[in-house]
Amino acid sequence: MPRGIGQLSSLERLSRFVVAKDNTVCSGLGELQGLNNLRGELMIVNLGYVKNRKSEFMAPNLKVKQHLQSLALEWNKDGDDSEGANDVENDEMELEALRPHQNLKKLSLEFYRGVKFPSWISSLTNLMFIRFCSCKSIKRLPPFDQLLSLKSLYISGLTNLEYIDSDGGSSSFFPSLTRLFLFHCPNLKGWLTCLRNDGTADLPRFPCLSILDIDNCPNLTSMPLLPSLEKLHFSGGGGKQLEHIIKMIISASQSSSSSSSSSSSSSSFPIFQFKDLMIQKVEDLNFCQSCCLTHFSAKSDYS
Protein backbone atom coordinates (compact mmCIF):
# COMPACT_ATOMS: atom_id res chain seq x y z
CA MET A 1 0.00 0.00 0.00
CA PRO A 2 1.26 3.54 -0.71
CA ARG A 3 2.41 5.65 2.20
CA GLY A 4 0.05 8.37 3.35
CA ILE A 5 -3.20 6.46 3.00
CA GLY A 6 -3.72 6.93 6.72
CA GLN A 7 -4.26 10.65 6.14
CA LEU A 8 -7.57 9.92 4.38
CA SER A 9 -9.49 10.08 7.65
CA SER A 10 -12.88 10.18 5.89
CA LEU A 11 -12.19 7.05 3.84
CA GLU A 12 -15.10 4.60 4.06
CA ARG A 13 -14.04 1.76 1.74
CA LEU A 14 -10.74 -0.11 1.85
CA SER A 15 -11.45 -3.72 0.98
CA ARG A 16 -7.82 -4.91 0.91
CA PHE A 17 -4.73 -3.72 2.81
CA VAL A 18 -1.49 -5.42 1.73
CA VAL A 19 1.53 -5.36 4.05
CA ALA A 20 4.69 -5.01 1.96
CA LYS A 21 7.83 -7.03 2.64
CA ASP A 22 9.80 -3.77 2.74
CA ASN A 23 7.64 -1.40 4.76
CA THR A 24 10.35 1.24 4.86
CA VAL A 25 9.07 2.24 1.44
CA CYS A 26 5.41 1.24 1.66
CA SER A 27 2.86 1.77 4.42
CA GLY A 28 2.66 -0.30 7.60
CA LEU A 29 -0.29 -1.20 9.80
CA GLY A 30 -0.05 2.20 11.48
CA GLU A 31 -1.70 3.70 8.40
CA LEU A 32 -4.98 2.13 9.54
CA GLN A 33 -5.00 3.86 12.91
CA GLY A 34 -6.96 6.96 11.94
CA LEU A 35 -9.27 5.32 9.39
CA ASN A 36 -12.16 4.98 11.81
CA ASN A 37 -14.86 5.57 9.19
CA LEU A 38 -14.06 2.34 7.35
CA ARG A 39 -17.14 0.23 6.75
CA GLY A 40 -18.08 -2.94 4.96
CA GLU A 41 -15.20 -5.39 4.44
CA LEU A 42 -11.51 -5.08 5.35
CA MET A 43 -8.92 -7.73 4.44
CA ILE A 44 -5.37 -7.41 5.80
CA VAL A 45 -2.87 -9.73 4.09
CA ASN A 46 0.82 -10.63 4.55
CA LEU A 47 0.78 -10.04 8.30
CA GLY A 48 4.01 -12.03 8.57
CA TYR A 49 5.86 -9.11 6.98
CA VAL A 50 5.09 -6.76 9.85
CA LYS A 51 8.19 -5.52 11.67
CA ASN A 52 8.29 -4.08 15.20
CA ARG A 53 5.42 -6.43 15.90
CA LYS A 54 4.47 -5.35 19.42
CA SER A 55 3.82 -1.73 18.44
CA GLU A 56 2.70 -2.32 14.86
CA PHE A 57 -0.10 -4.72 15.72
CA MET A 58 -1.54 -2.33 18.29
CA ALA A 59 -1.50 0.54 15.79
CA PRO A 60 -4.57 -0.30 13.63
CA ASN A 61 -6.85 0.09 16.68
CA LEU A 62 -9.51 -2.09 15.06
CA LYS A 63 -11.61 -2.14 18.21
CA VAL A 64 -12.84 1.43 17.56
CA LYS A 65 -13.83 0.80 13.92
CA GLN A 66 -17.50 0.29 14.68
CA HIS A 67 -18.71 0.38 11.06
CA LEU A 68 -16.69 -2.62 9.87
CA GLN A 69 -18.93 -5.59 9.12
CA SER A 70 -16.33 -8.07 7.87
CA LEU A 71 -12.67 -8.60 8.82
CA ALA A 72 -10.25 -11.03 7.13
CA LEU A 73 -6.74 -11.48 8.57
CA GLU A 74 -4.20 -13.40 6.53
CA TRP A 75 -0.66 -14.30 7.57
CA ASN A 76 1.97 -15.54 5.13
CA LYS A 77 1.60 -18.92 3.48
CA ASP A 78 4.22 -21.55 4.37
CA GLY A 79 5.99 -19.36 6.91
CA ASP A 80 7.14 -16.77 4.37
CA ASP A 81 7.77 -13.72 6.58
CA SER A 82 10.33 -10.98 7.00
CA GLU A 83 12.44 -12.70 9.64
CA GLY A 84 12.18 -16.37 8.73
CA ALA A 85 10.09 -18.50 11.07
CA ASN A 86 7.52 -16.41 12.92
CA ASP A 87 7.16 -18.21 16.25
CA VAL A 88 3.89 -19.25 17.84
CA GLU A 89 4.03 -16.67 20.63
CA ASN A 90 4.36 -13.83 18.15
CA ASP A 91 1.36 -14.99 16.13
CA GLU A 92 -0.78 -15.28 19.26
CA MET A 93 0.29 -11.87 20.56
CA GLU A 94 -0.36 -10.28 17.18
CA LEU A 95 -3.85 -11.67 16.87
CA GLU A 96 -4.77 -10.60 20.41
CA ALA A 97 -3.76 -7.03 19.49
CA LEU A 98 -6.00 -7.04 16.40
CA ARG A 99 -9.22 -7.21 18.41
CA PRO A 100 -12.09 -5.83 16.28
CA HIS A 101 -15.17 -3.89 17.34
CA GLN A 102 -18.13 -5.68 18.90
CA ASN A 103 -20.29 -4.91 15.85
CA LEU A 104 -18.32 -7.25 13.56
CA LYS A 105 -20.47 -9.84 11.74
CA LYS A 106 -17.92 -11.79 9.66
CA LEU A 107 -14.45 -13.00 10.68
CA SER A 108 -11.89 -14.91 8.60
CA LEU A 109 -8.43 -16.09 9.75
CA GLU A 110 -5.97 -17.72 7.34
CA PHE A 111 -2.43 -19.12 7.79
CA TYR A 112 -2.44 -18.21 11.50
CA ARG A 113 0.23 -20.28 13.31
CA GLY A 114 -0.71 -19.92 16.96
CA VAL A 115 -1.85 -22.96 18.94
CA LYS A 116 -4.85 -21.10 20.33
CA PHE A 117 -7.25 -18.50 19.07
CA PRO A 118 -7.53 -15.10 20.79
CA SER A 119 -9.72 -14.58 23.83
CA TRP A 120 -11.79 -11.92 22.11
CA ILE A 121 -13.48 -14.25 19.59
CA SER A 122 -15.97 -15.50 22.17
CA SER A 123 -17.00 -11.93 23.00
CA LEU A 124 -17.99 -10.95 19.44
CA THR A 125 -21.64 -11.71 20.03
CA ASN A 126 -22.81 -10.26 16.69
CA LEU A 127 -20.75 -12.66 14.57
CA MET A 128 -22.81 -14.48 11.94
CA PHE A 129 -19.99 -16.03 9.88
CA ILE A 130 -16.61 -17.49 10.90
CA ARG A 131 -13.96 -18.91 8.59
CA PHE A 132 -10.77 -20.58 9.84
CA CYS A 133 -8.44 -21.73 7.05
CA SER A 134 -4.97 -23.33 7.21
CA CYS A 135 -4.44 -22.57 10.90
CA LYS A 136 -2.32 -25.69 11.19
CA SER A 137 -1.24 -25.52 14.86
CA ILE A 138 -4.76 -25.23 16.31
CA LYS A 139 -5.93 -28.32 18.23
CA ARG A 140 -9.21 -27.05 19.68
CA LEU A 141 -11.59 -24.27 18.81
CA PRO A 142 -12.53 -21.60 21.34
CA PRO A 143 -15.86 -21.84 23.19
CA PHE A 144 -18.62 -20.32 21.11
CA ASP A 145 -21.40 -20.44 23.71
CA GLN A 146 -21.91 -16.67 23.60
CA LEU A 147 -22.12 -16.48 19.81
CA LEU A 148 -25.88 -16.78 19.66
CA SER A 149 -26.07 -15.16 16.19
CA LEU A 150 -23.53 -17.42 14.45
CA LYS A 151 -25.10 -19.00 11.36
CA SER A 152 -22.16 -20.26 9.26
CA LEU A 153 -18.91 -21.92 10.39
CA TYR A 154 -16.26 -22.83 7.81
CA ILE A 155 -13.22 -24.84 8.95
CA SER A 156 -10.59 -25.90 6.41
CA GLY A 157 -7.01 -27.12 6.64
CA LEU A 158 -6.77 -27.22 10.45
CA THR A 159 -4.56 -30.28 10.28
CA ASN A 160 -3.96 -30.56 14.05
CA LEU A 161 -7.53 -29.87 15.14
CA GLU A 162 -8.78 -32.75 17.31
CA TYR A 163 -11.91 -31.55 19.08
CA ILE A 164 -14.50 -28.80 19.04
CA ASP A 165 -15.11 -27.84 22.64
CA SER A 166 -18.16 -26.63 24.51
CA ASP A 167 -17.17 -25.18 27.86
CA GLY A 168 -20.65 -23.95 28.72
CA GLY A 169 -23.23 -25.76 30.80
CA SER A 170 -25.67 -26.23 27.94
CA SER A 171 -25.75 -29.23 25.64
CA SER A 172 -26.86 -26.97 22.77
CA PHE A 173 -23.91 -26.00 20.55
CA PHE A 174 -24.19 -22.98 18.26
CA PRO A 175 -27.92 -22.38 18.81
CA SER A 176 -28.38 -20.43 15.53
CA LEU A 177 -25.90 -22.30 13.32
CA THR A 178 -27.44 -23.44 10.03
CA ARG A 179 -24.36 -24.27 7.91
CA LEU A 180 -21.22 -26.19 8.95
CA PHE A 181 -18.32 -26.96 6.61
CA LEU A 182 -15.45 -29.24 7.71
CA PHE A 183 -12.73 -29.65 5.07
CA HIS A 184 -9.29 -31.29 5.23
CA CYS A 185 -9.02 -31.81 8.98
CA PRO A 186 -7.35 -35.26 9.11
CA ASN A 187 -7.03 -35.39 12.93
CA LEU A 188 -10.49 -34.12 13.81
CA LYS A 189 -12.18 -36.71 16.04
CA GLY A 190 -15.35 -34.90 16.98
CA TRP A 191 -17.06 -32.95 19.71
CA LEU A 192 -16.40 -33.35 23.42
CA THR A 193 -19.53 -34.27 25.32
CA CYS A 194 -21.03 -31.78 27.72
CA LEU A 195 -21.48 -32.54 31.41
CA ARG A 196 -24.69 -31.88 33.28
CA ASN A 197 -24.58 -30.41 36.79
CA ASP A 198 -24.72 -33.92 38.25
CA GLY A 199 -21.60 -34.92 36.31
CA THR A 200 -23.35 -37.12 33.75
CA ALA A 201 -22.63 -36.77 30.05
CA ASP A 202 -24.98 -35.39 27.45
CA LEU A 203 -24.72 -35.44 23.68
CA PRO A 204 -24.18 -31.99 22.16
CA ARG A 205 -26.93 -30.74 19.88
CA PHE A 206 -26.99 -28.45 16.84
CA PRO A 207 -30.69 -27.50 16.94
CA CYS A 208 -30.85 -25.44 13.72
CA LEU A 209 -28.13 -26.98 11.55
CA SER A 210 -29.59 -27.73 8.12
CA ILE A 211 -26.45 -28.11 5.95
CA LEU A 212 -23.43 -30.25 6.88
CA ASP A 213 -20.52 -30.63 4.45
CA ILE A 214 -17.64 -32.96 5.41
CA ASP A 215 -14.63 -33.52 3.15
CA ASN A 216 -11.46 -35.45 4.02
CA CYS A 217 -11.93 -35.73 7.78
CA PRO A 218 -11.20 -39.48 8.07
CA ASN A 219 -11.05 -39.66 11.88
CA LEU A 220 -14.30 -37.83 12.53
CA THR A 221 -16.53 -40.34 14.32
CA SER A 222 -18.13 -38.40 17.18
CA MET A 223 -21.05 -36.35 15.94
CA PRO A 224 -23.54 -34.13 17.75
CA LEU A 225 -27.28 -34.57 17.43
CA LEU A 226 -28.58 -32.97 14.24
CA PRO A 227 -32.38 -32.80 14.53
CA SER A 228 -32.88 -30.23 11.74
CA LEU A 229 -30.42 -31.50 9.12
CA GLU A 230 -31.66 -31.28 5.53
CA LYS A 231 -28.49 -31.68 3.45
CA LEU A 232 -25.44 -33.88 4.06
CA HIS A 233 -22.47 -33.83 1.68
CA PHE A 234 -19.79 -36.37 2.59
CA SER A 235 -16.51 -37.00 0.78
CA GLY A 236 -13.13 -38.59 1.38
CA GLY A 237 -13.91 -40.87 4.33
CA GLY A 238 -14.82 -44.44 5.16
CA GLY A 239 -18.10 -46.28 5.02
CA LYS A 240 -18.19 -46.93 8.78
CA GLN A 241 -17.64 -43.25 9.45
CA LEU A 242 -20.51 -42.29 7.16
CA GLU A 243 -22.75 -44.95 8.67
CA HIS A 244 -22.09 -43.55 12.15
CA ILE A 245 -22.98 -40.02 11.03
CA ILE A 246 -26.23 -41.20 9.47
CA LYS A 247 -27.11 -43.09 12.66
CA MET A 248 -26.57 -39.89 14.65
CA ILE A 249 -28.95 -38.08 12.32
CA ILE A 250 -31.52 -40.82 12.82
CA SER A 251 -31.04 -40.75 16.59
CA ALA A 252 -31.55 -36.99 16.68
CA SER A 253 -34.66 -37.23 14.56
CA GLN A 254 -36.08 -39.88 16.86
CA SER A 255 -35.34 -38.04 20.09
CA SER A 256 -36.74 -34.75 18.80
CA SER A 257 -39.96 -36.14 17.40
CA SER A 258 -42.87 -35.89 19.78
CA SER A 259 -44.82 -38.44 17.78
CA SER A 260 -42.25 -41.22 17.92
CA SER A 261 -43.12 -44.13 20.14
CA SER A 262 -40.79 -46.02 22.44
CA SER A 263 -41.04 -49.02 20.14
CA SER A 264 -39.74 -47.16 17.08
CA SER A 265 -36.42 -48.54 15.87
CA SER A 266 -33.61 -46.68 14.11
CA SER A 267 -33.89 -49.10 11.19
CA SER A 268 -37.38 -47.93 10.26
CA PHE A 269 -37.62 -44.35 11.51
CA PRO A 270 -37.79 -41.89 8.57
CA ILE A 271 -36.09 -38.49 8.53
CA PHE A 272 -38.94 -36.42 7.16
CA GLN A 273 -37.06 -33.16 6.70
CA PHE A 274 -34.00 -34.70 5.01
CA LYS A 275 -33.76 -33.62 1.36
CA ASP A 276 -30.24 -34.13 0.01
CA LEU A 277 -27.53 -36.75 0.56
CA MET A 278 -24.40 -36.62 -1.60
CA ILE A 279 -21.61 -39.20 -1.13
CA GLN A 280 -18.27 -39.04 -2.95
CA LYS A 281 -14.93 -40.88 -2.71
CA VAL A 282 -15.99 -43.15 0.17
CA GLU A 283 -13.99 -46.33 0.78
CA ASP A 284 -15.49 -49.57 2.12
CA LEU A 285 -19.06 -48.51 1.53
CA ASN A 286 -20.65 -51.60 3.06
CA PHE A 287 -24.09 -50.40 3.96
CA CYS A 288 -26.45 -50.69 1.01
CA GLN A 289 -28.35 -48.03 -0.87
CA SER A 290 -31.66 -49.44 0.26
CA CYS A 291 -30.67 -48.71 3.85
CA CYS A 292 -30.33 -45.02 3.02
CA LEU A 293 -33.59 -45.00 1.11
CA THR A 294 -35.32 -46.54 4.12
CA HIS A 295 -34.36 -43.60 6.30
CA PHE A 296 -34.90 -40.78 3.82
CA SER A 297 -38.30 -39.67 2.68
CA ALA A 298 -39.51 -39.84 -0.90
CA LYS A 299 -38.59 -36.17 -1.34
CA SER A 300 -34.93 -36.86 -0.62
CA ASP A 301 -32.19 -36.83 -3.25
CA TYR A 302 -29.61 -39.61 -2.82
CA SER A 303 -26.52 -39.79 -5.00
UniProtKB/TrEMBL annotation:
Superkingdom to which the source organism belongs: Eukaryota
InterPro entries attached to this UniProt entry: LRR_dom_sf, LRR_R13L1-DRL21
Sequence ranges assigned to domain R13L1/DRL21-like LRR repeat region in this UniProt record: 29-157
Signal sequence segment: none
Protein known as: R13L1/DRL21-like LRR repeat region domain-containing protein
